[in-house]
Amino acid sequence: MLMMKRLMTKYVPGMLTCEQVDRFLYDFHEDTLTYSERVKFKLHLSMCKECKTYVRDYKNTIRLSKEGIPTAEPLTKVPEELVQAIIKSRKIDS
Amino acid sequence: MKNLSLPSSLAVDDENNLIDKLIKGDDQAFESLIRNYSAKMYSIARSFFNNDDDAQECLQKSFIQVFENIHSFRKEARLTTWLHRITVNCALMMIRQQQRHKTLPLEDYFQHYNDYGERTAFTDNSASNLEQLFELKETKTTLNEIIRSLPEKYCNVLLLRDIQELSTNETAMILAISTAAVKTQLHRARLFLKEALKTVSEQAEYNNKGN
What we know:
The complex is a heterodimer.
Chain A: H1 2-11, H2 18-30, H3 35-47, H4 49-68, H5 80-93
Chain B: H1 12-23, H2 27-48, H3 52-69, H4 79-98, H5 130-133, H6 137-149, H7 152-163, H8 168-175, H9 179-210
């Protein structure tokens, strides 16, 4: 499989290397690749187990990082006592 | 009696009116500002700290900065972007004062390639299922520590883009860097986290085997 990948990378026009996949990864995730780039990216993934795992773990990392930071819950409003404290601090400040 | 209830995202004209009133020192406008914009500012502040107390202090300090500097606000940027920028700067100032941003070296965590452009450092660690890993509470704590140990520029971009889900443009404006720098730094932060998680996963697997 490794030899096949190496041969395809060398002889198939536009075939990406793993390194090039890495360079495209950010835009792939942001969905900002062109159609042609996206096809090449997916073609590489279809024949490269390492990159497939790499991309899967990249996506999982982004999703899971939100769980590592407990803040991420969206607040609809801050507590009233905090609002009052800020209003008071402005009056003191001025 | 004026109606103080404003939508959380104001149209540009409404925002300009609000800014004009703020510059004139209108008390009701300030209260509107606090009530309508503080939730997102608090959320941003909270992502920089592990506790509510620091986040609340940061929010208060941020509004003091807003009160003192609203007259110098230029309407070229959205008010929200300016407020978020002040919040991030206050958070970073507090973190620096607390001197608790210990930086990890990143270089060892990035991929290496051979002459064919193929990955040379790869382990098909199918056992390192990140989702399973995150069922462990201690993993979340570890990840939190790793994120906060990232070099400041990587940590900031990650918090604003991936945690707060701000756009690339707004993140760039808040941090006063280019959108290209946002992309590069965010990508590097994500790759670092990914590799750090793999290490955590391997450690967890090793511990399980030991038990």
